[in-house]
From TrEMBL:
Transmembrane domains' residue ranges: 26-46, 67-86, 92-110, 115-134, 154-172, 179-200, 225-245
Similarity section: Belongs to the MIP/aquaporin (TC 1.A.8) family.
Catalytic reaction(s) noted: H2O(in) = H2O(out)
GO cellular component: plasma membrane
Key words of the record: Membrane, Repeat, Transmembrane, Transmembrane helix, Transport
Tree of life domain: Eukaryota
Residue segments, region Disordered: 328-347, 356-392
Main location: membrane
Taxonomic source organism: Venturia inaequalis
The name this protein goes by in its record: Aquaporin-like protein
Protein's cellular compartments: Membrane
Lipid bilayer topology: Multi-pass membrane protein
Stretches with biased composition (Gly residues): 357-373
GO molecular function, one term: water channel activity
Length: 392
């Protein structure tokens, strides 16, 4: 009995979840880099390069066919393995991506540390498999091409990593109706980055990817630090831009892109989203703490938290006192996502939200109803008097 209880407690513990995610990340990183490195070795199978040369430079007999083969190997290996391991560990396989998700709050510090270690070990394991299994030269290290300066190499790595990380933030972290095919976009992002980066820098975009081959072949370049600093800077740039567009409420710039039905719903969704923004600003101006707004799985806004007037949940404000009446909690949800008030002078239906200040008083919402009548819809940012007259 005690053994079963202990096992049940372990299955529900945080440490178990960290261990499972770490194991998934270790295997996933190994598989991703093994197939990517194997494709690179095959692409360079007839090159005159020695075992300690890299994927870059004319010394490997470089041509466009090899470039496409290497880029394809990395991009599609990432796509497939992210799709496999996304539900286990997130399918990051890259310390630069781990840093971005840590900074944006998608994962905690402990999980990030476990994943980082798994990514390093996975790269070493993949590199060891390549050296041990294939008799061909393991041309999988990354160095700067001849004639490329250190600042330019650093910028290339940072720029390409920023593109990859931002793709991951928008397709995987931001939940939308196409999140389930995010691995396709992520893999294609790495593919196009490799088309540019492989020749000039080796196309690392990933500190673990560069570290593993250097450890296994025990060949170190004086510019190895570029493959740590460059991706880290790129990750920071992507996170900064992501934070900026989130602060500017990018969902309102091009609304309706995640509509689950016909385009006819786009305008309604845009109006509802704008109403949510208006409500937040009005309530903020009145001094209420309306909690945090974040994007839900369907692209709609979801608001959680408490305010002095009552509970705010799922984008609806439930007032403690609806203008002399009872609490509006317990009413049924109407088609606009609001609730029908149990009673009160402030009106029969609360619409999207109400903040009554007495009989026939002003409302802070876009939808109001007075005197027991159904709510009227006014222009954005306006309220409706009991008589239906707009109030600016």
């Amino acid at each position: 009995m005690s053994n079963h209880l202990g096992w049940a407690l372990f299955l529900n513990s945080g440490i178990k979840n960290h261990l499972v995610a770490t194991l998934g990340e270790l295997i996933g990183t190994t598989m991703f880099l093994f197939f990517a490195f194997a494709g690179t070795v095959v692409a360079n199978i007839n090159s005159p390069a020695g075992e300690k040369l890299t994927t870059t430079g004319l010394t490997t007999g470089w041509n466009v066919n090899k470039l496409l083969f290497v880029a394809f190997s990395f991009g599609f290996s990432l796509m497939v393995n992210v799709w496999i391991f996304f539900r286990i560990s997130g399918g990051l396989f890259n310390p630069a991506v781990t840093l971005a998700l840590l900074l944006t709050g998608a994962i905690g510090f402990v999980r990030a540390l476990f994943l980082f270690l798994a990514q390093i070990l996975g790269s070493i394991a993949a590199s060891g498999l390549i050296v041990g299994l294939f008799p061909a030269a393991a041309n999988v290290r990354t160095t700067l091409s001849q004639g490329l300066s250190i600042p330019k190499g650093l910028f290339i790595e940072a720029f390409l990593t920023a593109e990859l990380v931002f793709t991951i933030l928008m397709l995987a972290k931001e939940k939308h109706k196409a999140t389930f095919i995010a691995p396709v976009g992520i893999g294609l992002a790495l593919f196009i980055a490799e088309l540019v980066g492989v020749y000039w820098t080796g196309g690392s975009l990933n500190p673990a990817r560069s570290l593993g081959p250097s450890i296994v072949t025990w060949t170190w370049d004086r510019n190895h630090w570029i493959y740590w600093l460059g991706p880290a800077l790129g990750s920071l740039v992507a996170v900064a831009f992501y934070a900026l567009i989130k602060a500017l409420e990018y969902e309102l710039a091009n609304p309706g892109q995640d509509s689950d039905s016909a385009a006819a719903l786009d305008r309604e969704r845009a109006v509802r989203m704008r109403q949510e923004v208006v409500r937040r600003r009005v309530m903020g101006a009145m001094g209420y703490d309306v909690g945090e707004m974040r994007s839900g799985g369907s692209g709609e806004f979801e608001r959680l938290g408490r305010c002095e007037m009552g509970l705010v949940k799922d984008g609806v404000l439930y007032a403690r006192d609806g203008g002399g009446g009872r609490d509006s909690l317990g009413g049924r949800r109407d088609s606009l996502g609001g609730r029908e008030a149990a009673s009160g002078v402030g009106g029969e239906k609360a619409g999207a939200y109400v903040a009554g200040h007495g009989r026939g008083g002003s409302r802070s919402g876009v939808y109001t109803a007075g005197g027991g009548s159904a709510p009227h819809v006014g222009p954005l940012g306006t309220a409706i008097r009991d008589s239906g007259e707009s109030v600016r």
